[in-house]
Amino acid sequence: MQMGMHTDTERCVRAVRSKDARFDGWFFTAVLTTRIYCRPSCPVVPPKPENMVFHPSAAACQQAGFRACKRCRPDTSPGSPEWNQRADLVARAMRLIADGVVDREGVPGLAARLGYSTRQVERQLLAELGAGPLALSRAQRAQTARLLIETTTLPMARLAFAAGFASIRTFNDTVREVFALSPSELRTRAPKRQGAGTPGALALRLPFRTPLNPDNLFGHLAATAVPGVEEWRDGSYRRTLRLPYGHGIVALTPAPDHIACRLTLSDLRDLTVAISRCRRLLDLDADPVAIDDQLRTDPVLAPLVDKAPGRRVPRTVDEAEFAVRAVLGQQVSTAAARTHAARLVTAHGEPVDDPEGGLTHLFPAPESLAALDPESLAMPRSRRTTFTTLVRQLAEGELHLGVESDWPRSRAQLLALPGFGPWTADVIAMRALGDPDAFLPTDLGIRRAARDLGLPSTPAALTARAAAWRPWRAYAVQYLWATDSHPINFLPV
């Protein structure tokens, strides 16, 4: 798979004819005769090649005057894997747009976070995606509106503002333009909701590209869950979310063809951001076929991939939180790290009300942790220094970890902090910042797996050997970890 696939007409036509869902989100098919746009796997009879044009984004289709197909619902495709595997300006901008920055801070806010001028950001997005940041954000608002229309009974006026629209008129016009239906018609056509569920909760389906192996993904999250903030219950991973306008609680349940997502939000304006963060947490926009094909070229990894393909990298919903937890986990067991984190949550976390019980707090913000007494930390003095330096820099903005982070620059900043070695910096790069090529050659589990598989055991030699796994070394880590019997590798019973 390569960047700009929409420009390869012959390849796109083949993908549409084969109805291969793997290509959903990589490009969109606009049909000149019907003026609708579809995902490549649309079940309808493919149009003639001369009637197809291809666009890199749903926003580009909408800007060109095409409406979303009612059969395949292209606006609900998995996101393009490119935005999570690249670290350039366009990819970082797309991650920020998905996190709702344009709606909250406007295009100038987006540009400021990226360190570029507004004109540079707009020019590069337009060149690669066929749409500027406002159009991309508008397409995202339309998708959020559809979710709310179909999954809630909210009055349309309240729903419009929750989806991020500035006026009812703009909301109505956008929905009609994108879906060729009024908001009330969309609601009438929506499948009937089953059961009452949790009062106030939104029930959603998060799509992904198959295959997806849930074992290490949910196993890791459950095994490292911090009491009060996270739990595994009745086949679901549940946790609290700190969001721009309030807080939320999410329950994520693996299913064969989707992840069931149940969200309770204190402010519905956070819906888009919450969905985006849950998708990042579970690495749902990855392209597992491309990743596994690359790793299979190594005869040592091939049997591991064939045994359980589709492993994802368990990530995070809060980069700063994960960095703090990585420090707490330095040179201690998983159980000890959970205990340290639970004490911080009880003492400094923000209490929340969980309608289902079990969850009690948001993980403490850096500002709260920066004010604590270091002597209250039950850890060696050197690690206290590491901890207090990290939370102070996060609280004061000297160190920023976010979806838009430049991976090499952030890694260098982390390594400059006292007590930060390669393992801590790289596990943050892999699980918090989303670098798909982050590697952990000094990790005890990786070195043990390397020894058992006949791979080099020293960090330098293993790193050299792992060059063939690039740019997917973070996924190779998941397969190597899976050779161990640690609970992180197994879906909880």
Task: Let me know the largest β-sheet.
Answer: 5 strands, antiparallel
Rg from alpha-carbon coordinates: 23 Å
Shape: globular
Beta-strand content bin: 5-15%
Mean pLDDT: 92
Task: Offer a few descriptive terms.
493 residues, alpha+beta
Description:
The chain has 493 residues and is α+β, with helices and mostly antiparallel strands. Helices cover 46% and strands 10% of the residues. Helix 15 packs antiparallel against helix 18 (381-396) and helix 15 packs antiparallel against helix 20. It has helices at 9-18, 58-63, 82-85, 89-98, 101-114, 118-129, 133-151, 156-162, 168-179, 183-189, 214-223, 271-281, 288-296, 302-307, 319-328, 334-348, 366-370, 381-396, 407-415, 422-431, 444-453, 459-465, 473-481; strands at residues 28-31, 36-38, 52-55, 67-68, 202-206, 230-233, 236-242, 247-254, 259-265, 350-351, 361-362.
